[in-house]
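Appendix B, example 12.
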Amino acid sequence: MADWGGEELEVLKLFGQELLKRVFAETDPADIRQWALRQLGKAESVSAKSVLLAWEDTFEFYDDVLKQRAARSLLPADQRREFKFPWQSWNSRIDSPDEADMLIMISAAPGTGKTIWGEMVAEENAKQGLYGVFAHWELNSKVMMDRRAVRQTMVPRAQFRQGILTPEQIASLDEETASRDGLGEWILLSKELREKLNAANTRMRLWSGGVDYWHTSGWDVDLFCREVRAADEERKLDYVIVDYFGKIGISQRQSKIFGQNIGLIEVDIIESLKQLAEEIHVPVVVLTQLTKGGRNKPDGADSTDIRGRGELTERANIVALLQLIKTEGLPDQIKINMDKNTLGATGSWNQIRIPQWFMITDIDEQHWD
């Protein structure tokens, strides 16, 4: 008779339980099949030999790791495919998150700048040759492109909101029309803005990487993970940014399995995103909100102030909390509290927020004048 205490049979028992949950929840058969194939594939690839690193093998293994790292370091910067942050203050504390299939959680109160943080991380990595997905549940694509244009041109958003006349539109205006209602000033401004935007677009097109912006309003985590896997198969992704956790919808599967238990649903969402990071071997960055109690702590928020608390943060490799500090007469600052970091030190430091340019900088960078 089979030993049901054995490790392999225990894995199969868990697989069967999860399979039945999905069947009784009347999950789409195609989704069940994809999930089962992924789980069976992982089970086949995991054996005692594949997970065991014997003492005598550790030395050769680590030599190979160092050799591979050296080979990558010899490449030009835009060919190394190293996930980086656009700030030295972050890179000095978090070392090579791309090697560890990281789940990175960034939490802040509304209006602090967590979306700006994510946008700048995406653009920095595109500049460095990486290709990723920025999934935004809240802001629409027009607003996202406005913000990028402002950041890249240093032109106020109000000027882009008015629109930029094309050469064809300008040519179609007769002299009388062009001279009324201040259109002449708008024509001159349009020519100036067009030059700045064209220069910015030319610069961005020279980046060897890129960002796909997904407006995912209404999507649940099952749909999102399925689409990310498909995108990764079509074109290998280097990172995924989720903006933001609290807006992710509840799937039919989750509703039938967990009912209205939001806590269990949130744990399932974060577990799904963690599994996604491990399956496609990329950092997944999740932006989320602080609880009301954590927004004004004098010593800075910590992991207990994240909505969902330990159930969510224990699955993350890195947890950082952003807290806005406003002082009259001085630029806005954001206090960063690195509360959990499996790749380096924890601790706190401040950065500058420049909301009119949708930017965050290290304090020694002069971009806010």
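The CA atoms of residues 180 and 233 lie 55 Å apart. DSSP finds 15 helices and nine strands in the chain.
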